[in-house]
Amino acid sequence: MASDHQLAILTRIPQDGHNEYARIGEIQPQPSVRGVFPGPAGADILCRMSTPLSIGPIAIGPQQDLVIIAGPCVLEDDAIQTAIAERIAAVCGELGLPWIFKGSFDKANRTSLGSPRGPGIREGLDALVRIKDAFDVPITTDVHEPEQAGTVAEAVDMLQIPAFLCRQTNLLAACGETGKPINIKKGQFLAPADMAHAAHKAVEAGAGGIMLTERGTFFGYHRLVNDFIGLGDLADLGWPICFDVTHSTQLPGGGTRSDGEPVQTAGRPDRAGLLARAATAAGVDALFIETHPDPSNALSDGATVQTLDAAEHIIRQAHAIRCGLQSMETTAS
Fold this sequence. Notes:
By secondary structure, the chain is an alpha/beta fold. It folds into 2 domains: 7-49, no CATH class; 53-327, Alpha-Beta Barrel (TIM Barrel), CATH 3.20.20. Helices cover 31% and strands 23% of the residues. The chain has helices spanning 78-95, 121-135, 149-155, 169-177, 195-205, 228-235, 272-282, 308-332; strands at 7-15, 18-27, 33-34, 44-49, 53-55, 58-60, 67-71, 99-102, 139-142, 158-161, 182-185, 210-214, 217-218, 224-225, 241-244, 250-251, 266-267, 286-290. It has an 8-stranded parallel beta barrel with strand order 7-8-9-10-11-12-15-18, surrounded by 7 helices. The protein has a 4-stranded mixed beta sheet with strand order 2-1-4-3, with no helix packed on it. A hairpin with a 5-residue loop joins β13 and β14. α1 runs parallel beside α8, α4 packs across α5 and α7 runs parallel beside α8 (308-332). It starts with 6 loop residues before the first strand and ends with a helix. Residues 1-48 have low confidence and may be disordered.
């Protein structure tokens, strides 16, 4: 039985592909433990342990700084990328937050065949590397096909698996075989616990670490919802958790056009801040934010990407919430 000054911790730890509850004696809270608060003497306190994910110099996980992953939806010209990187670097630098630049070289799941898809793999990777070199920042991008994994891994610091492709064994295995860290987005059609299978495929193939991203769940037609109980369930799997702020506001396929132009996905960008605050308060390890100097003219996801001002505001609010949580945890320990 724990004394008044000790904590008995019951935690869920991935073991051989399964989640097992294990009592870790009567110990003091450790830096890798999320959400440990003092309880009655002898009480078991459920918490999450997670191995931080290393992206260059950045550690993503419990008791680490909140990490910001930001950039345009699809890569455009260097001026756009530079404007975004300058703004995000400035606010994250001021707040002391690590950040990663993201941008897609190909949007392979556009609503319309006529929608812009991006510069392609060679030009796109070159553009990302220019940002990496100019701002000394890690970079990430999507991989849509197994054949792309090796080439992309040579340029970027973290590979990303799109939500629609998170069950594709060949893709997960190819990305894992590169040895790079992988951010796997949870499919809009999956229960949180099902993401364990995707993560294990990549780990077994040799991935250099895993992060799981929540980006909303289908709720009927043309609607996504965010299940924050499910977000906790996703965290229980044991890997660092990212929350996709902007894609979570999508109304998939909900855009209409009467002028013959390509249809785009609609969205509720006005709710991005609300979702970011809630996710940060829930204890996520990273926020994913797509932003653009002029969303109305963005080549992709113009209905959900945030203005640079809005993205900065979201980051500042999230940082304040994260600092409050860390203060509470320090006091509790």
